[in-house]
Amino acid sequence: MEHSPIPLTAREAASGLLGSISMTCWFFLLVPQLIENYRNGNAEAISLLFVFVWFIGDIANLAGGLLAGLVPVIIAIAVYFCIADGVLIAQCLYFKARNSRREPLLRRRSSTETPDPTTPLLGRRFSDPLGSSQSRRRSSGSQRGYQAGGRRESEVEDTLAKIVEENDYGRKAWAKNITSVLGIFLIGMAGWAVAWRTGMWEPAPLENNHGTEEATGGLVLGYVSAVCYLGARLPQIYKNYSEKSCEGLSLLFFILSLLGNLTYGAGILCHSTEKDYFLTNLPWLIGSLGTMVEDVVIFIQFRIYAVQDPSLSAIS
Q1: Per the confidence metrics, is the pTM higher than 0.90?
Q2: Where would one find the signal peptide in this protein (predicted)?
């Protein structure tokens, strides 16, 4: 027997649709940065303090949801956030430990090898202690090739690394990011439509247990998570500024963060703007909409510190 979906007002439908898109953005949020770190063979671009503070915010968010007795789906998403944060932290620590063990060996090898005059750039990569952080990140692939067995392998691997890097310039990067965002929006919209048609989703009631100890505790933890979310990006912004580089960061990661926060906050406001409901959700609104300002700052840094396309530089 086919289930008849409950009738919805325009605001209820908009709230449900925006909430589903937001959840989809959060689900895929960390994937681009995890891939970027794996491709680079390091996680130097990510501020560990940024990830740790964000992790604390997600833990506070989960604890607040459990204390306030939120629906199981919200709790499950909060658990997923904590697991995803843990995976990113583990990846960053793994690359940091692995590369720190390799650095002394590479330094000893570079000091004993006689530079080939026909390959000055390669020698400079190994011997220049004043090289920028960008050159250190880009040289990781060539260093591994040198250690594996010779300059020829190093040059081949270095060429492949350049090809990978150049795939993310200009129009190709924008096309990839726009396609990814559109795909995530479609998944979120389709997921909500199916959930509504099958009766798995229905509008959340406006009534709440405001004033009880559980609600008060959940509200306090909500403000703790909001402070963590607002403060987490500051170390990353400072790191980008001090290094004058955003190389190694995934732009799509921050795009999804911005869209996830925007749709989450808009979904709450679409559901209701009544005073009690607004005050109950205020910490989560601050945590979502407030961080958008910091995401915009990071977008500006991406623009200011952008690496120019080598092919365009050659033409000019």
Answers
A1: no
A2: none
